[in-house]
């Protein structure tokens, strides 16, 4: 029974019962009007540059949780993400579906490999880790402590890897939107709308406008941590 409980908790991405987990930004005065936009699973050579252009056009800085093996395929794009003022964080080296049942040695190897990959490509060492699909186990937190990483989940997600309707993605992100929320979208593996356009490209401008219309501003997770 105890094993079932532990496994169930690990399948709950926003749980803090297995260790510290950022599901919202820290409750500090400087974060009182802030939200964080996080973008997972990239980089993607087609979608990521368009996402960067949209963010530039609106003056928004985001946190990109990148996969090490994908980053190695597109080193110039990784440098561009950082050059444009965004933060690159650790989303594992390979993003395996068995991550949540991996033992400590395997977790260390997977996460540390991504640390070295992303630091070598960007010149900056990641400070946050997001587990593949948010799923983890009881062994993860000691590994993160050893590597000086903080676990970050999310407050709201758009399910944009499978939802093809941009309006529904947007509604999931802004329904009940509040200060200190962490929002999740994807630049790689993004679903496409009826016209074949990745939904993230349609959602982003409207999301930014909605956030600002509610008197909120965007920060990276690093900025929120230091606030």
The strand count comes to: 8
- CATH homologous group name: Glycoside hydrolase/deacetylase
Shape: globular
* Category by helix and strand content: alpha/beta
Helix percentage: 40-55%
Mean pLDDT: 92
The figure for the number of domains is 1
Give the DSSP E fraction (strand runs of 2 or more residues). Answer: 5-15%
- According to CATH, the fold-level topology is TIM Barrel
CATH architecture verdict: Alpha-Beta Barrel
Explain this structure:
With 227 residues, this protein is of the alpha/beta class. It has a single domain, classed as TIM Barrel. Helix content is 41%, strand content 14%. The protein has nine helices and eight strands. Strands 1, 2, 3, 6, 7 and 8 form a six-stranded parallel sheet that branches. A two-stranded parallel ribbon has the order 4-5. Strand 1, helix 2 and strand 2 form a beta-alpha-beta unit. The chain is globular. It starts with a helix and ends with a helix.
Quick summary of this structure?
The chain is α/β, with parallel strands linked by helices and 227 residues long. Helix content is 41%, strand content 14%. Helix 5 crosses helix 6 and helix 7 runs parallel beside helix 8.
Keywords:
227 residues, alpha/beta, TIM Barrel, globular, disordered N terminus
Sequence-ordered SSE layout with sheet pairings:
Elements: H1 2-10, E1 34-42, H2 47-58, E2 63-66, H3 68-73, H4 75-83, E3 87-90, H5 104-122, E4 128-129, H6 140-146, E5 150-151, E6 156-157, H7 166-174, E7 182-186, H8 199-213, E8 217-219, H9 221-226
Parallel strand pairs: 1-2, 1-7, 1-8, 2-3, 4-5, 6-7
Helix pairs in contact: 2-8, 5-6, 7-8
């Amino acid at each position: 029974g105890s094993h079932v409980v532990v496994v169930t908790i690990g399948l709950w991405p926003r749980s803090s019962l297995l260790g510290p987990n950022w599901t919202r930004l820290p409750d500090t005065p400087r974060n009182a009007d802030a939200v964080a936009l996080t973008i997972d699973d990239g980089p993607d050579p087609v979608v990521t540059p368009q996402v960067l252009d949209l963010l530039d056009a609106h003056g928004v800085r985001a946190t990109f949780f990148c996969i090490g093996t994908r980053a190695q395929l597109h080193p110039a794009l990784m440098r561009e993400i950082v050059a444009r003022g965004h933060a690159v964080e650790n989303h594992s080296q390979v993003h395996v579906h068995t991550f949540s049942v991996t033992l400590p040695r395997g977790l260390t190897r997977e996460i540390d490999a991504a640390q070295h990959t992303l630091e070598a490509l960007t010149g900056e060492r990641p400070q946050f880790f997001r587990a593949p699909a948010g799923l983890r186990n009881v062994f993860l937190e000691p590994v993160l402590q050893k590597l000086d990483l903080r676990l970050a989940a999310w407050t709201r997600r758009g399910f944009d890897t499978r939802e093809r309707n941009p309006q529904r993605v947007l509604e999931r992100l802004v329904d009940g939107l509040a200060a200190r929320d962490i929002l999740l979208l994807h630049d790689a593996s993004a679903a496409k709308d009826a016209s074949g356009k990745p939904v993230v490209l349609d959602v982003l401008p409207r999301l930014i406008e909605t956030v600002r219309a509610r008197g909120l501003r965007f920060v990276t997770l690093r900025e929120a941590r230091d606030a």
